Amino acid sequence: MATAIADPLARKYQRVFKHLDADGNGYIEQSDFASFVDRLAKEYKLPKTDQKVHAITAAFDAIDTFAALDTDGDGGLSCQECVKGCRQYFNSNSLDEPGSWFFGRF
Ligand SMILES: [Ca+2]
Ligand SMILES: [Ca+2]
User: What is the pTM assigned to this prediction?
Assistant: First the structure.
C-alpha cells in the first residue's frame, strides 16, 4: 500500500508561487516580478531610487534569468517550474541549474 506523503517544502514553494503570481492567472510573468519588487520596496519602506530596489529590479528584468526558469519556453513560469526553481536555488550548488538564477545574480 502506497501512501502519499505530503512534501512540506513543495507546499512552501507553492506558497511562494502564489505570492509571486500577483494577478493570480496561474503563471508568473515578468509583470508579476515587477509587482513583487514594488511590494517588497513598500514593505521595507524603500524608495524606488534605493540601490537595493534597483539591484532586485535589474536582476528580475534580466531576460536570461526568466528564460532560464521558463524551462518549457511558454513565456510564463508554472507552479511546477517555480517549485523546481526554488528547489534548485536553495538546494543545488551548481550554477548550471536554471533555479540557481531564481532571484537573479545575487
Ligand atoms: Ca501571473
Ligand atoms: Ca513555462
Answer: 0.71
